[in-house]
UniProtKB/TrEMBL annotation:
Recorded catalytic activity of this chain's protein: 2-phosphoglycolate + H2O = glycolate + phosphate
Protein name according to UniProt: phosphoglycolate phosphatase
Organism: Aureimonas fodinaquatilis
Pathway(s) this gene product operates in, as recorded in its UniProt entry: Organic acid metabolism; glycolate biosynthesis; glycolate from 2-phosphoglycolate: step 1/1
EC number annotated for this UniProt entry: 3.1.3.18
Enzyme kind, highest EC tier: hydrolase
Keywords in alphabetical order: Hydrolase
Length: 247
């Protein structure tokens, strides 16, 4: 916190274009935090309850950023087993109960993520999280990892009437953080994040180490980065300008 305040006090709002403080909005699963270990454990807990064999984390990873239903449907598909809708809903309940109780057992911030947050804060950026997790679970996870106080807003799929890729989720997060979408950028790991940014008319960065940086996501991203090392304030300000925002 003292570090953040030092960074903020070093810059005046007049240092930014039109005096607007920029905001970097981060996706959570697969972007800031590697949640796949605990999501896989929760999935395997559900499969075990139904006498099914466990699945390995590498198989689950591409589905990990698309929610518990997507993971459960995929796992039943791999096992060639029917999954009726009512059973899926019971599984989701079990999944979420287990997940909440074990949310930060194996989950950690991706390499370089915390340092990138430090850099951006020191450069005067506001930070926020826009995730398709529930707002409550996102806050529980970020609290457990000691990261939540860094963010001016943490918004989940249930914070607004619509979720990513609907621009109301991303736009609502930016507004709740006290920022403006004309000086904002979205950093994520899936096509859902890139599409949300495009729908709001802002720049996006695709972190290609994430869970599902597929062709569609790559084609939609303003910039693709393989690691956090290159995620700098300078780059994000340039992307905001080139997206026509902030001008
Ligand atoms: O839980 C999900 O559906 C995905 O979460 P994310 O938006 O943080 O990647
Ligand atoms: Mg994600």
């Amino acid at each position: 916190m003292p570090r953040l305040m030092r960074g903020m006090s070093a810059l005046q709002s007049t240092d930014f274009k039109h005096g607007i403080r920029p905001i970097a909005v981060f996706d959570l699963d697969g972007t800031l935090v590697d949640t796949a270990p605990d999501l896989t454990a929760s999935l395997n807990h559900c499969l075990h309850l139904h006498g099914m064999a466990p699945v390995c984390i590498e198989t689950v990873r591409p589905f990990a950023g698309h929610g518990s239903r997507a993971m459960l449907r995929a796992a039943y598909g791999w096992a060639n087993t029917e999954l009726p809708e009512d059973m899926l809903e019971r599984h989701v309940e079990n999944f979420l109960t287990y997940y909440e109780a074990n949310i930060a057992v194996g989950s950690t911030a991706f390499p370089g993520a915390v340092e990138a947050l430090d850099r951006l804060s020191q450069a005067g950026f506001t930070l926020a999280v826009c995730t398709n997790k529930s707002e409550r679970l996102a806050k529980v996870l970020l609290d457990s990892l000691g990261l939540s106080t860094r963010f001016a807003a943490i918004c989940g799929y249930d914070s607004f009437p619509a979720r990513k890729p609907d621009p109301r989720h991303l736009g609502g997060t930016i507004a709740q953080a006290g920022a403006e979408h004309s000086s904002s950028v979205m950093i994520g790991d899936t096509v859902t994040d890139m599409e949300a940014a495009r729908n709001l008319g802002i720049a996006s960065v695709l972190m290609s180490f994430g869970y599902d940086a597929n062709e569609q996501a790559r084609a939609m991203a303003t910039k693709i980065l393989p690691t956090y090392d290159d995620l700098t304030a300078k780059l994000l300000l340039e992307l905001m300008d080139s997206a026509g925002s902030g001008s």
